[in-house]
Write a structure and sequence with these properties.
16 strands; alpha/beta; 32% strand; seven-stranded mixed sheet; 29% helix
């Protein structure tokens, strides 16, 4: 069991938990994830390691309280324990050798984009971090992202904060203005990652995306997280979660992610009623 050392509400639906996990913190690298479980009957939840502190022996996870399991996880408080925490899992992002990179995050995907940008920036790379949100009220990690980048371009779909528009518009403007990126790293909703990959394709810019398929065990045994990349079946938990965005079958990924939406909604509503009765 792992102690919750700090709880921080980033917005109305997004929570950051800092967990005591010295063995995981000692080995974690950007792009890797953990699987957490809250309660003896809790569901296994894969969450990217948003940050880690090797000296303090802690890791941080960020999640939206949108389903039954994440709502239960979000109800935990500082000083309480997680039932299970396994990791680090997945293959770290290959970030060595890049000198000029655009890191693009969409919504809560910025929690995954942040450690990528932080690592690259610490290695001396010129990092343009493009962070997009629907509206000002759901902006997260602005100060952290600013410190982790050479340039932060923050945008909202409705223009309520930062620049008005989508991350793809900003990225295209950067490229057309002469920015010669070695690579683009895109992390966020599937439609956003797909749009970024299609944008960079004609420019021939290497594009890395972080995939979020349905996942159960996180070690490659169940096959639930299979994705098609370059016409081949891959398992996101062990072969990824990062892949070449120009080779990902995004249509299949979106279809598989939507398979259990109705059941997830029923479970969420039941959990919400239980929490409101406490």
């Amino acid at each position: 069991m792992n102690l919750i050392k700090q709880k921080r509400e980033l917005n109305a639906v997004t929570t950051m938990l800092t967990l005591e996990a010295p063995e995981i913190a000692a080995k974690a690298l950007p792009g890797q994830f953990v699987i957490v479980r809250s309660g003896e009957l809790g569901e296994r939840i894969p969450l990217t390691i948003a940050d880690y502190d090797r000296v303090a022996g802690t890791i941080s996870i960020i999640f939206q309280k949108v389903g039954a399991s994440t709502m239960a996880l979000g109800a935990l408080q500082e000083g309480e324990m997680l039932t299970d925490l396994a990791g680090p899992l997945g293959t770290p992002t290959e970030l060595e050798g890049y000198r000029k990179v655009a890191v693009v995050g969409g919504g809560v995907g910025c929690a995954i984009a942040y450690p990528q940008a932080k690592f690259l920036h610490a290695e001396g790379a010129d990092v343009t971090l493009i962070a997009g949100f629907r509206t000002k009220e759901i902006v997260i990690l602005e100060d952290e992202m600013r410190r982790a980048s050479t340039t932060l371009r923050l945008a909202t779909d409705d223009g309520s904060y930062g620049e008005h528009g989508f991350v793809t518009n900003i990225l295209k403007n950067c490229i057309d203005s002469g920015a010669e990126f070695d690579a683009v790293i895109a992390i966020g909703p599937v439609p956003m990652m797909r749009a970024v990959a299609e944008l960079t394709r004609p420019y021939g810019i290497k594009t890395i995306v972080s995939l979020n398929p349905i996942m159960i065990d996180g070690t490659g045994m169940c096959g639930g997280c299979r994705v098609t990349v370059g016409g081949q079946v891959k398992f996101a938990c062990v072969d990824g979660p990062d892949f070449d965005g120009h080779e990902v079958d995004f249509a299949e990924l979106a279809h598989r992610n939507a398979n259990f939406k109705v059941r997830e909604g029923h479970a969420r509503d039941a959990t919400c009623r239980l929490l409101n009765q406490q």
